[in-house]
Design brief:
Blueprint (H helix, E strand, L loop, with lengths): L1 E8 L3 H12 L4 E5 L6 H6 L1 H20 L14 H25 L3 E4 L1 E6 L2 E5 L5 E11 L3 E3 L12 E2 L1 H4 L8 E5 L3 H12 L3 E5 L11 H14 L2 E3 L2 E9 L2 E8 L4 E6 L1 E4 L3 E3 L32 E3 L10 H15 L13 E3 L4 E6 L2 H6 L4 E7 L4 H5 L6 E7 L5 E8 L2 H13 L4 H5 L10 H9 L11
Parallel strand pairs: 1-2, 1-6, 2-3, 6-17, 8-15, 9-10, 9-15, 10-11
Antiparallel strand pairs: 4-5, 5-6, 7-16, 12-13, 13-14, 18-19, 19-22, 20-21, 21-22
């Protein structure tokens, strides 16, 4: 029987980050994952492979439709999907190998198999050969992640009706793809296959896509994606599905009462994710869950089971890799007697479409719903020199500040590089800065990030590159 200070169940971003931080703090640490490699959903079948395909497909889009504007002509543009997939796999392999290297260098015991908490401080490891090994630890962290949600009237068969797992590995471009769900995953993967030649239709139950952003942001995003070739049906629910002649027939009904039928080679169900526990804790321990199946924890990530903690997608909050990573760090710092901390008010959220969309903190709409008096500054990329020079003038930056104090409450960026630019706003918000602080910070010229400065100045109607309101 092996004994540790800490055992982490789950090798995704929350789990492996927590394990590394624990090792740094001197804890004898083990990490268990059922996959052959670490990285969880994000690295293996999520964040990383999707970004690799987004980049490859963006090059195809440029060659076919945008290069001519720069005086560059391509004849008979073609692509090799197998090589794209090979590159994607190579990126994932390099990163997973890097994680294994980090485990060794940090002297973390890497265990392959399925872990189950059978008693406080006791974990049973089920190995691939059927054997079991009992492990003990002073502390155990659950970081088992999440899996795609499904709809009862749209059963997934993983061949024609698929989740994001399968949509990352099609061996050919579908002629017609129906995406059910207009959130980040659906929009990103819909963009990939649209750029590669699929006719993509997105069905969204809510009144607009990516509804966690303000309406002016999502309207701009939808127009941009429609220009790429995607079609959208919002306020529309899927009512049924049937298979006919190798095709999938999707029935849907709008809230206006109109019915629709779509034909597709593939249907991607992207309606969110749900916590994945799958027997990670024996029922006899009485682990408390929320109504949504999330593990209940206190401010130190402790569950109701002594010595058992939970982090990442299995607890409340946005299911984001970077949120899980910060929880992993904070959790083990609490365990080690230090002051762990996660500021949930400044966790950025990104959709990696073209243009990208990134946000942090309060939106203008959320501020209104909470009766928070705010002032808003907005600056379009079409007035930014670098954006025009780069032919990337779609979108804008929108900054929300508290009306009385000017404290920065949030920002949204829709435009090329939004995922990188949002970090500046996150940093300022972490330190309680104001819109004026951001607006008076010197930005290199010409850069896209000058739009962040200008939007901050626009809060007081002092933007320099657009007329006053």
């Amino acid at each position: 029987m092996s004994s540790f200070d800490l055992i982490v169940l789950g090798g995704g971003p929350a789990g492996y980050t927590g394990a590394i931080r624990a090792a740094q703090l001197g804890l004898n640490t083990a990490i268990i994952d059922k996959r052959e490699v670490l990285g969880g959903t994000c690295l293996n079948i999520g964040c990383i492979p999707s970004k690799a395909l987004l980049m490859s497909s963006d090059h195809v889009l440029f060659a076919k439709h945008q290069a001519a504007h720069h005086g560059i002509t391509f004849e008979n543009v073609s692509f090799d999907l197998a090589k794209m997939m090979q590159r994607k796999t190579g990126v994932v392999k390099q990163l997973t190998q890097g994680l294994e290297f980090l485990m060794k260098k940090n002297k973390i015991t890497r265990l392959h198999g399925v872990g189950q908490v059978v008693a406080p401080g006791k974990v049973m490891l089920g190995k691939a050969d059927g054997k079991q090994e009992e492990l003990t630890a002073k502390h155990v962290i659950l970081a088992t992640g999440s899996v795609p949600s499904e709809l009862p009237n749209l059963p997934v068969d993983r061949e024609t009706v698929v989740t994001s797992d399968e949509a990352l590995s099609f061996n050919e471009v579908p002629n017609e793809l129906v995406v059910v769900g207009g959130g980040a995953i659906g929009l990103e993967l819909g963009s990939v296959w649209s750029r590669l030649g699929a006719k993509v239709t997105v069905i969204e139950f809510l009144p607009r896509i990516a509804a966690f952003f303000d309406a002016d942001v999502t309207q701009t995003l939808q127009k941009a994606l429609e220009a790429e070739g995607l079609s959208f049906y919002v306020d529309t629910a899927v009512t049924g599905v049937a298979k006919k002649g190798g095709k999938v027939l999707v029935q849907a009904k709008g809230k206006d009462g109109k019915t629709h039928e779509f034909t597709a080679d593939k249907v991607l169900v992207s309606v969110g994710r749900k916590p994945y526990l799958d027997g990670a804790v024996v029922k006899d321990l009485g682990l408390k869950l929320t109504d949504r199946g999330q593990v209940k924890v206190d401010e130190r990530y402790r569950t109701n089971v002594p010595g058992l903690y939970a982090i990442g997608d299995i607890i409340e909050g946005p299911m984001l890799a970077h949120k899980g990573e910060e929880e992993g760090i904070a959790c083990v710092e609490f365990i080690a007697g230090k002051a762990g901390h996660v500021n949930y008010g400044v966790i950025p959220n990104v959709v990696y479409t073209s243009p990208e969309v990134a946000a942090v903190g309060l939106t203008e709409q959320t501020a209104k719903e909470r009766n928070v008096a705010v002032r808003v500054g907005k600056f379009p990329f079409v007035a930014n020199g670098r954006a025009l020079a780069n032919d990337l003038s779609q979108g804008f930056v929108k900054v929300v500040a508290e009306a009385r104090t000017d404290r920065l409450l949030g920002a949204q960026i829709i435009g090329a590089g939004a995922s990188e630019m949002i970090a500046e706003v996150v940093t300022l918000m972490e330190f309680g800065g104001s819109a004026e602080d951001l607006g008076r910070t010197v930005h290199a010229h010409p850069t896209m990030s000058e739009a962040v400065k200008e939007a901050s100045l626009a809060v007081d109607n002092q933007a320099l590159s657009i007329p006053p309101r």
